[in-house]
Amino acid sequence: MFSRILVANRGEIALRVIRACRDLGVEAVAVYSRADRDAAYLNLAHDAICIGAEPASASYLNPAAILSAAEISDVQAIHPGYGFLSENPVFAQMCRDCKIEFIGPPASAMRALGNKVEAKKLAKAAKVPMVPGSNGFVADEGEALTVAERIGYPVMIKAAAGGGGRGMRPAHNDAALRTNFRNARAEAEAAFKDGSLYIEKLIERPRHVEVQLLGDPKGNTIHLFERDCSLQRRHQKLVEESPSPHISVKTREKLCAAAVRLAKAAGYYSAGTCEFLVDGDENFYFMEVNARIQVEHPVTELVTGVDLIQWQIRIAAGEPLKLKQGDVTQTGHAIECRINAEDPDREFRPNPGRIETYIAPGGPGVRLDSHAYAGYVVGPNYDSMIAKLLVHRATRDDAIRAMRRALEEFKIAPIKTTIPLHAKIMDSMDFRRGQVDTHFIERAFMLAPHATAAPAA
Questions:
Q1: Do 86 and 157 lie in a common domain?
Q2: Choosing from 166, 185, 261, 292, which is the catalytic residue?
Q3: Does residue 405 have an active-site annotation?
Q4: Domain presence at residue 361
Q5: What's the rounded mean pLDDT across residues 87-106?
């Protein structure tokens, strides 16, 4: 086991990794930008090192600054959390070239799965169902029109290096395809420095279901069942739950088996997530692999009892994965609500500022992962998520009631948050029946005039 690990992230995931390190008896070294110099979780680390100015490009996205901090603090490994450099194969290789273990998958698997077109080639070889679409990149509008004629409208234009909904545009006819192809390419080039696009058949009103994976370098790979992440706004998840409602046992088994096949085909190890679209007939189609720990990993931890962060660390330290597939079972139902410092009534506009009132919920089956507190200042520099509120109860109905109660207890003021929206979601009969899809939030809660703006990055 490592003796010291550097946590190359911030906020609640930095706190989560620090706690996992302490539980394993490992010293944690935190890094921070000048914007986070007063973060309370820094006091829980054995050391804390400033790595740069407020912008992420000068700190959390600066490999040289992070590796310099790792060298001077004499760590054996770096945990990247999620976001920032967590899925950057160049950074992963830089760490290992410096004789510092990167707590995550091998750079080769990250490269293979990080580009969506290459990932689809692997998925096809592993006999994982895929949405009909182009065979690789689409060079221009003419080729895009040919593909659309072959697979039929509606179609979705996607950036090969995309994420978070950037570089994605739907098209229902030739005119829309021409316009949106140009717009998607420009957005992809600006966001990812890569304008490569591909086209898929648009699955209307799909569910977004993902499978949690865990594996070691010896090829021992298991799944930890699925999470339903259908409740989203602008392709950003708001609510996640496990098990997925209205997914049959047979579909669950096929879905999870497909994810494991793909992970093995890519030589993947550590924690990862394979994401699928599921239509109304429970046909499922591969979307992408997230080669890192997910924001919503606690949902799986609650229903399986497996500490995913600890297993990431153990595997990186050379321990074999001792868990067998038969050892992992789902117990009860878990729901996570992402609490963001945003105003849902104003197009989810970020609402930074000082938190004066912070009253955390509690009670049986309630878990709160948060770095915020009364007096904490939510700044404009980073993601607006300030907490993850989770519940775990025996049944889905019990979990919904517990979440509704916990949301009522959770007080954050004066800044605006998504807590009131989450309460409305828990009260929705469609949600309670499990009758939702990836466009449910827009249909049910974003029909005001201000809600018609273009998707945010």
A1: no
A2: 292
A3: no
A4: yes
A5: 97
